[in-house]
Amino acid sequence: MALQNIGSSYSGIKADVYVLTRIYNSYTVGSKFEERFSKAAASVSENAKLYKDGTVIWMLYDDSPKDERQKKHENKLMKTCSSYGFSQEKGNLIYIQSEMPGNSAYASFCIRKQFLSIAKENDIAVSLDQDDELRPGAIKSIVENMPKNGVVLSSFTVIDDGGKDITGDGGKIQKKLTKYISKHRIDNSTASKKDDSKKNNLKDIFYASSIGWTKSYSRFAMEKNMEALEGFLNEKRVSVIDYYSKHPAYEDFVDFYILLRSDITISATPDVTHTYYKHKEAITTNPDIDSFKLHRTAMLLTLIDLCYKEADNLRPDFKQLLMRFVTIKVVDIERILADYRKDFNDGDNRYYTFAEDTHDDYFLRKLYRLSQGDNRGKEQDKELFENAEPIRCDKTKDNFDDLFSCENINSIKVYHAEMKAADSRHVLQKAFIEENKFRTEELCWLKRIWEKEKQDDKLNYDNKLTPNQTRYRVMWVGLILWFLLIVGFALWAYVFKKDTENFVTPILALMATVLAFLLNEQSKVHLLAREEVSKKILYFSEFEDLKRHLEANLKVMIEIRKQMEKGKVPADIHFTNLSWPQTSCLFSDDITDIIDKKKVDDFARLKVNLRNIQNSSLWLSKYVREPHTNEEICKAIDWEIARHIGYLMNIHYMQNNNFSFPSQNELDFYIREKHLKNYLAGMFMSYHGDDKDKDGRCQILRMKMVNHYLDIYYDDRRERRNVILYNL
């Protein structure tokens, strides 16, 4: 990788910026299309005001269905754009209606072609989805970092439906690398196999999903990309339209080609340029299995064939970079599929098809079989291979086998792989394993932090020293200083002994006496410190016991509630056992003398929970002895199950947040975590579902029960009920 110092390529040059946006309005009731589009429009407008070296032109490619609602939809679009300063009359808005509505891949192709037909030599293309936003100053930053023959990478932020930032690793890798690349552009024209390996290694730039970063194009780069792709499709496939008719789901995999061209310079902006919103209507939250087994395989095989066809125009080491990129994408997709299967097991029925049809290595196997033209297999794969005609060309198998060859994988140092006489499938599998291993090692510091936090939470919730531990350490310092003072005084007396004989001996004796006293006091403090530590250990040990106690109680109440559906009557002894012994040190006030003083309120709130548990035990055991109907007792137990879920989640929160007691909002947000809901579902052991119903899996039923009791719990919190007190 050859590096060059940044020059201001666009300094003093007039450059218009085209923001390319595909529009798709499904016209469904409840859709937030207009609201989200307005936010996108506002962000483009703000950037247009900040950009002074040209005009920001918004190019809208309307891919919405064509029916009687289209005209009304178009009028609303134009009105929204006009309210933010964009109109066709002003020349800063271009509106195009799709010839093949609903095909996102073809729409992306067409809007780029339209840009090339209009844009001048120095113009720049920036992509923006209709429901996302440009960050303030994004366009200005992109232009400042754009080489005349290049591409600018930029990082982004992902926000979920609840407004939470869910960007992978917090965007740390993106920000670190874009900052570096913005200072040192990658000039592919000087890349050579003879270059120093460290300078020629693109592992950082193409690490993990980094190619998924937003890419902005100079007109030169966009033209080279589109010329190569269109020429390849027309020559090797049926036609551009036929290809995208078969594969309508847009993926940016093929865009990796432009980053390998020898006449392209890669740059980056250190600023975050886009905010992506992942909401319920987004494609990523409503996946289709065909987009994995057919469309994504199509795009990766097309990328491989395109690169081999254009090999003379690419970097000499393009095979190593391409192999790694394809492998990384296989790893990413396999992880996505694994997450979908897990989400189904967690109760999300949208992913039923993925749980039924996919498995470990699912995508890897599909990609390999398609590359080889191997149409043997399950009956449901018949359609896959019938649609494979526009995916494969005559040389697809040879290209794939050459890319995933022993020679190629051995040349990629990061894999540390030495293979001989292995076929391309085994090489791909080896690269897949190595890439997982490499990525784990790269992020091992996160794993170490997580393991340390987990260990700290389990063994020591309060890391502050006790008062006597602090005194013990201070006294050690005092002892050392006093001992050094005695030694210094003795040396001084030895040097000047003739003049100091009369008072040296009594002073040394006095100092020795003080030293003995300090040693004795230190011994006492040490014993007191050990006693305090023992108290802390006992306290936190009983805290662990309390968590297990709550888990057991919750399972018992759930089972009692289940049995009551069969008409059985609960015994009061079950509810008497819910109580926590008042002799427990968790009720003791002595702990406030040795814990972190900032935690006193947290410990006090914990004791309130313990008293509530006591009251619940007294109340329920008395309630079931009274003449109540089965329905009334069921409601009472339901209420206490919900409350015990709250108690248990309080304990979990404290365990994982340095013993801080959660506020109502903190706990409500905390309980939404999937792994905690999964944990709670495990309490409903007797809920197995109906074996005759293929969708009635026990995990789904258990998750429904969790959500049911959480609803009761949230209602209880909102009504701010108080525990009923009884005097027996």
Question: What are its keywords?
Answer:
728 residues; alpha/beta; 10-stranded mixed beta sheet; 10 strands; 55% helix
Strand content: 5-15%
Helical segment count: 24
- Helix share, percent: 55-70%
Low-confidence stretches: 1-8, 195-205, 444-461, 691-696, 720-728
**How far from one another are the termini?**
81 Å
Biggest sheet, in brief? Answer: 10 strands, mixed
Judging from the principal axes of the Cα atoms, what is the shape?
Answer: globular
Number of strands: 10
Q: Roughly what is the average pLDDT, rounded to an integer?
A: 79
Integer-rounded radius of gyration: 34 Å
What does it look like?
The chain is an alpha/beta fold and 728 residues long. The protein contains 24 helices and 10 strands. It has helices spanning 33-50, 70-83, 104-118, 138-144, 172-183, 219-236, 240-246, 289-309, 318-345, 352-357, 362-372, 382-386, 396-403, 406-410, 424-442, 444-459, 467-495, 497-564, 572-576, 600-623, 630-656, 664-671, 674-681, 698-719, and strands spanning 3-5, 17-23, 56-62, 93-97, 124-127, 133-134, 150-160, 184-187, 214-218, 265-278. Strands 1, 2, 3, 4, 5, 6, 7, 8, 9 and 10 form a 10-stranded mixed β-sheet that branches. Helix 2 (70-83) links the parallel strand 3 (56-62) and strand 4 (93-97). Helix 20 (600-623) runs antiparallel to helix 21 (630-656). The longest helix is centred in the C-terminal third of the chain and has 68 residues, at 497-564. It starts with a strand and ends in a 9-residue tail after the last helix.
